[in-house]
Fold this protein.
Amino acid sequence: MRYGMAIDTRKCVGCSDCVVACQTENNVPIGFCRDWVVEVVDGTYPNVSIELRSERCNHCANSPCVRCCPTGASHFEDGGIVLVEHNKCIGCGACIEACPYDARYSHPDGYVDKCTFCIHRVREGNNPACVSVCPTSCMYFGDLDDQNSKIVNVLKNRKFKSLAPEAGTKPQIFYLV
Amino acid sequence: MRTRRDFIKICSVGLGATALTGSAVNWVVGASTPKGSLKDFRGVRRVPTYCEVCFWKCAGWSYVTEDGQIQKIIGNTDDPQCKGRLCPRGTGGVGMFSDPDRLKTPLIRETKNGEQTYREATWDEALDYIATKMKAIAEKHGPESMALFNHGSSGKYFTHLLNAFGSNNVAAPSFAQCRGPRDTGFELTFGESVSSPEVTDIRDTRCLILIGSHIGENMHNGQVQEMSEAIDRGAVIITVDPRLSTAASKSKYWLPIKPSTDLALLLAWIHVLIYDELYNKEYVAKYAEGFDELKVHVRNYTPEWAYGITTLKPELIRQTAREMANAAPSAIIHPGRHTTWYGDDVQRSRAIAILNALLGTWGNRGGIFFKEGIKIPDFPHPPYPKPAWSWQDTLNGRYPFAKEAVTNTVIEASIPGEGKNHVIKGWIVSGTNLIVSIPLKEQLMKAIHSLDLLVVVDTMPMEITGYADVVLPECTYLERHDDLRATAHREPTLALRMPAVEPLYETKPAWWISKQIGQRLGLGPYYNYKDFKEVLDWQLKQVGSSLNEMEQMGLKKFERKTPVYITPGSDYKFKTASGKIQLYSHELEAAGFDPMPKLTLHPQPEEGFYRLIYGRAPMHTFSRTANNRNLGALMPENAVWINPQVAELWGLKKDQYVFLKNQAGVVSNFSVKVRITERIRWDSVYIVHGFGHHHKPLTYAFGRGVNDTELISDVKIDPVMGGTGMRGNFVTFIKDAAKKEAKS
C-alpha cells in the first residue's frame, strides 16, 4: 500500500478551501499552514496561462526529512505517510532545511509540523480534509498500488508531473496538467 | 464636519469590558495541541446549519465538541447546492463566531462633555429607545417614514416589523448595486429572472459563455462545482474579460475585451447567429416574437464593426459564435450576477437574454432550466396595514422597471428638501455595510445626517455602526435559529439552521430583536410565539415535516412535480404578457427606451489613468469577511493588479505600496500593494472589493488594502431600473505618500 494524491490543475480554481479545511480539521494555528495554493502565470498579455495548484508535503518515498531527523520523530507510517511524532521532536529544524518543498513549519508549541494526509481520517476510511472539501473535486487520494483505485485511473489517463523531480525525493503527489 | 451625528469609533467605549470569555473560542483561534496526538478533538455532536457567509446559503453541519466548542463546519452531502463541500468562506465561517472584535453589547449614542460617544446599554434600554423614536416618527410623519436596508437572513424579521408597523420601504443593495439589471433584462425578455441560486444548467452544458462573470473567484459554490464538472466533461468555455480571470484561464477561448464594450460583442454575436443562420429557427419561431425587427436592427453590427470597438478579431467573434451554435441548445450565455457596470446594464442584460433566446437555451438541458421549490406558508399573523405611500413613490416617475426598492431613491427620500411629499426619517440597517456597498457617498452622508433614528443591527463593528444612534449586537448564524432555507432549483429543498452553541456575550438573534421592538410598538399579535422554534415547527408541519425531523436531517429534499425542461413539442408559455420571448420589447418602447439593445460608447481613461475594475476573491464575501482571522490569513489585503508595461512606465516595483487617485481627485484612504501581472490589460487596473476598512474597531481589517467604493465617485445610473453603474471610474497612482492630497 502506498498512499498518494493527484491534483487536477485544470480544475483547481485556487480558492484555498483546502487550506482552511486543513486548518479547522487539524487545529493548525492561524498564520501557519500545512497546505497552500500556488499560482504560476506564464506568457504575456493576451497570450497568458495560469497554473493553480494546491501544495503540501509530498510524502516522498525517498524522504530527506526522515533521513536527517536526529531523534526519529520524522518517520514513515503504513502506506508511506511521512509523520512527525510531536513528543519525540526537539524542534531542531533540520527537516525544515532538508525539505525541497518547504512543506514544514515550526509549530509555536516547539515541534515541527506538516501535512499528515489526515491519517486519522484515512484510517477511518475517509479522505483527507482537503480532498473531501474541495469544491471543484480536483483532488484524488488513494492507494497507488491499487490498480482499481480512482487515483491510479486518473494517472493512467492524464498527463501529470511532480514537483522538483530533480531532487530525487520520489514525491507521492502528482499534478495533472 | 460637525453634525449631530458624528462618526463614533466603537472601540472608544471600552468594549474590552466583555473580552473574549470562556473556552468557547479557544479552539478556533488556535488552542495548543497536546503533543503526540494526531487527533486532539473529536466532534461529538453535529448540529445542522446553513451558511450565512454569502447568499448561496449552503447547508452544513457545525461540529461541536464535548466541551461546547465549534471545531469545524462541514457541508451537508444531501444538499444539491454544495454536495457536502463548503467553499473556503463557509469552511472558515467559524472565524465569524470567534472574531474578538464582534459587537458584544447594545450601544446608545450620547453626548458627554460636548463629545458624542457610545455608552453600553441594556437590551431593555436600547429597545425602549428605538420603540419611542419609532413611535415619534410615526406620529409626526407616519409609519411610512421608517425604512429598512438589509442583506441576508436577518432582513426578513425587520421587513416583517416594518410591514406590521405600516411601511414597505425595504431596500437591499443586492438590487440596485448588484443583480438588478440582470433580473430586469431577463424579466423583460423571458418574463422571469434567473433567480438565486441561478437556474443555469452548467452541470450538463456543452458550452458556457461567461461575460465578466468570474466563477471560481466569485465562489458561488454550486456554480463552481458545476463548472468543474463541465471542465471534466470537456465542455467549451468562452470567457469575455479584460482580465485573465481564473475562469478565463480554464477556457478554450478567452476574449480579452476592451472594457465597457461588451454590448458591441454581444450585438456582433447576435448578428452572426442571425445572418449566418446559426440560430435555433424552430425554437425562435415557436417561442419568440420580434425576430424580424431584430434581424433588421443588427444588420450592420458585424464582427468587423465590433472589432474596432472591442479590439477582438472578427474571426474570433465568428468562431465563438459558431462554437455556441454548435452546442446549442446545450449552451449558456451566463447572465452574471453583479451587473451594475456602465448605466446601460439592462440593455446589455437584454442582449445576453436575446442571445440565449436565439440559441434556444431557456428550457433546454444544458441551458437554463425551470426551477421548483417548496412554498413555506407564513406563520399566521394579522394582515399588514396598507401604507399610505411606499418606495415606489420615491422613484418620482423614474426607473419604471424597478421591481424591487431602489436603495438610492430611498436614501434620496431621506434627505429633507423642498417639495418632497415623502420623507424618510428613520432607518434600520441589518447585515449591510452601506458605507462600503453604496457608491453615492455624498448623498448617503447627507441622508444619514438628516435622520431622526438610525439603528444598525450587525455582528461586527462595520463602518455603518459608527453612524448609528443605537447599535444592536446580533449573534452569528452559528448561534441562532433562523428562517428555513426554501430553495427553488433542480430539486425543491428545505434546510434548517439551529444554534451550535449559545450566543456569546450579550448578542441576540434578529428574530428576537424584531419581536422585542414589535411588542414595544403594540404589534404583539404579529409575533404570536414565544420562541422561533414554534414558528419553524408550525411551518415544517404544514409541509409534512417537523422541527424534530429537520434537526436530525438538516436538509430535506422534496419530490419535483413539474418538468425541468420544456417537454419536446409542447406549447410552453413564457411568463411574459404574450407568453412569448420578447426579442423586441414593446414594454421598453412604451416607456421611452430602446426596444432592442443599442451600443452606447462609454468614456475611456485619459492618459495616465486606468479603468478601475473590481471583483471578488474566493475567500472573501464583500467587505464582511475582511476581519475574519481564518480567511484573512489566506488574503489579508487586496493588491492593485497592474500590467508590466504600465508598471515599467511608472517605475513601479512588485509589492511596493501606492495610493490610488481617481479622475475626480479622490484619493484612497490607504495605500495598496502593487501586483505586477500579465493577467490584466494595460488600460485597466483591478482590485478585489471589500478591503480598506477605515473603522479601527475592525482591528484586523483596519487599513489593509484599499476600498474600491470610495474611488467610485462617477456613478452612471441605469434609467430603466435605477442600477448604479460603477465601472466608469479611472485611477492613477501616487507613488510618494507625502504627495497624497486627499479630496474626499
